[in-house]
Amino acid sequence: MLLGDIAEIKTGMVLTRKKAELSTDVKATYRLITLKNVTDNGILNDEPFEVFQSNDMLNPSHFTENGDVLIRLSYPHTAIYINEAMTGLLVPSYFAIITVNPIKFLPEYVAWYLNTGEVKKELERSQAGSRIPSTNKTALSTIPIEEIPLSKQQVIINLYHLHQREKTLYLQLIEEKEKLFMALTKKMIKGELKEELS
Predict the structure, then answer these.
(1) What is the DSSP string of the chain?
(2) pTM of this prediction?
């Protein structure tokens, strides 16, 4: 089975066509999702969304909806699952919007699957030889995806959430250890720990 068989794939909007050049041209203002909002793991970070001033009212098809999957069209081809909190964001043309048929596939599972090493390597291979490696709707639609029961897809999603939580806690622990190390070494340099360590 191919991704194109289970999902509708379209690219985001070319922003230059609708960008208001003058403040008097502004017909609407939208929150815009950009590359800086998405981590390499496919998670939305804390970066604020950019504001896009449009010279026209834009078609709703250019905005994120609950259950969509966005994928970056250039390296590293990161996919992100759009939940309810991330709806209504304007999607630029350097992302593709994937709307999954939820009868056989969970969108969050598809986002996870697109972030696997095998898929990323396949996308890199399909772009070999081009000066600026980027993928397109056709290449995305030919990505093979194995059909597994929805219950197994949900188990994978649950494991993925647990894995991400563990990674976050681990990174926080490293950060705390780093602060502790820096504080101890500062005290040692100032001689405040001399008696304790001797």
Answers:
(1) -BHHHHEEEEE-B-GGGTB-SSGGG--EEEEE--GGGB-TTS-B-SPPPEEEEESSPPPGGGB--TT-EEEESBTT--EEE--GGGTT-B-BTTEEEEEE-TTT--HHHHHHHHTSHHHHHHHHHHTTT-SS-B--HHHHHT-B-----HHHHHHHHHHHHHHHHHHHHHHHHHHHHHHHHHHHHHHHHHTTTHHHH-
(2) 0.82
